[in-house]
Amino acid sequence: MIGRLAFRFQPFHPQRRIHVLQEPSTYLRLISARAYSRSPTLCSSSNSEKDDGYPYTHDGHQHGDRQYDENDLDWARSWIAEGDVKKKLAKFPPSIGVITFSRSSGPGGQNVNKVNSKATLRVPLEKLEPHIPRIFFGALKRKGSKYLTDGGDMVISSDSCRSQSTNTKDCWEKLYRAVIRSAQVPGKTSLEKKERVKKLIEKSEAVTRDWKYKLAKKKANRRGGPVGEW
């Protein structure tokens, strides 16, 4: 009978959340970690990262170590919503970049690799900064881009056509797309949603305070002392 019971005995395995403890854990620490891991939570702000790689809060206004106000976000939203190609390209003064032309690669024929039709645009980030929304510039500096070199320049090439002017225009359009795709811009939050989130946070904090008070009361009863105010 004893051997059968010993065979069926299952050793205690702490929950997986306990792996966050960095220092040597005693039995009391493990019990405390298990207790806090079971604390009720209705709403919490996450420090995780979205697909674009930027930390966010519940209001969506904090990206990385920068705080952007509504004016910055409205400016970025206007860039994303812009549909006119001419207006898109007008956002970049030609003086911020340098265009060079070279021969296109690939098979020859019909002057494809016989004339300098390939356009290459080089724009330093410091010259690009005053003309784009701050949220996009910060994202380009942190995440980078496939067009961003180690020297801090955006280098974009196009040889899709046999016309220098068309390839030049394509380079500027690629730059525009690279800028607006560098970061996710949160949409406008309605007042109703803000109030709902605020109430959820307040309710979550109240539940957490109540749980902590009950835990402190239980510990105080064991020691025989009073419970402090919360």
From TrEMBL:
GO terms for molecular function: peptidyl-tRNA hydrolase activity; translation release factor activity, codon nonspecific. Residues 99-209 form the Prokaryotic-type class I peptide chain release factors domain. Residues 48-67 have a biased composition (Basic and acidic residues). It comes from the Eukaryota. Residues 41-67 are annotated as: Disordered. Signal peptide: none annotated. This is Prokaryotic-type class I peptide chain release factors domain-containing protein. Pfam families: RF-1 (PF00472). Gene3D superfamilies: 3.30.160.20. One of its GO terms (cellular component) is mitochondrial large ribosomal subunit. InterPro entries: Mito_Release_Factor_mL62, Pep_chain_release_fac_I. GO terms for biological process: mitochondrial translational termination.
